[in-house]
Amino acid sequence: MAGPAIRSVARTTKKNSIIYVQDGWQTLVDQLYEKAVRSGVSMMTGKNVTEIEHDGAIRKIKFADGQEMDITHVISATPPEITAACWSGNVLFGVYA
């Protein structure tokens, strides 16, 4: 679905060129979201995360409403500084630019 489109764009674009996705980038995001859900991924949107617990691996997320969830992976669509503020101990074990 989205994979062939991405490969096609990668093959046909030149360095420093502008990429336009027909019907907008949101169509690509929507397709990736749908494929992930069909593959069994749980998606949560519109939740305020207060903490991401880890011990070298992600273990749990805590929400502003008091809910907690045991997890192994997080995809964050917030700016890096906001995601970093949620890490327990405010220590990241990765590098971002």
Automatic annotation (TrEMBL):
Coiled coil: none annotated. It comes from the Bacteria. It holds the Pfam family Amino_oxidase. Residues 10-82 form the Amine oxidase domain. GO terms for molecular function: oxidoreductase activity. SUPFAM superfamilies: FAD/NAD(P)-binding domain. InterPro entries: Amino_oxidase, FAD/NAD-bd_sf. This is Amine oxidase domain-containing protein. It comes from Paenibacillus xerothermodurans.
